[in-house]
Every structure is written in structure tokens, then in C-alpha cells.
Specification:
The chain contains three helices and three strands. By secondary structure, the protein is of the alpha+beta class.
Length: 91
Amino acid sequence: MKGKWEVTAQFIADTQMYAVYRLRDVDAVDHSGNREYAGGYVTDRAEAEFVAERLNAEDEEKGPESGNPQDQKTKNITSIIGYNEAFDNGE
């Protein structure tokens, strides 16, 4: 079972960055291979929290086993807020 969308923080080049992720399997250990990310890193925590809340609300509307591909949903959400410019440029 997949987990709820949450915000993670990490320092990248002396800048606090935030990303939205969820566990692919809540019964497994939390590690990079067990995480699904919604978009890239951003510098604004509020922006990341907004995305996590929106994705969780959409998941609740669709039910626990909606069968809908998550990839399209995350593309739609991240296009609403945009990616951090540094990551858009491939830096």
C-alpha cells in the first residue's frame, strides 16, 4: 500500500530545498528506492506542502485503489506550480 504524500527537506549547495514524496510500500523500510516523488525540488516549503495536500486530497477522492496512473497526476500538479528554475535548466 502506498503512503500519503509528504514533504522532505535537504540542503543542496547550502540552500534548503523541499520535495514531495510518498512511500511506494508503507510496510517496507523508508529508503530512496521505496520513494515516489512528485516533481522536483523547490525552495519554498509552503509550495511543497500545497502540492502534498492537493495530491492527498485527490487520492482521497479516488479511493485507496483507484488504479489511475500517478504519473499524469503529478505532472498536472507540478505544472500548476512550476519547477525550481535550477532544476528546469538541468543544473
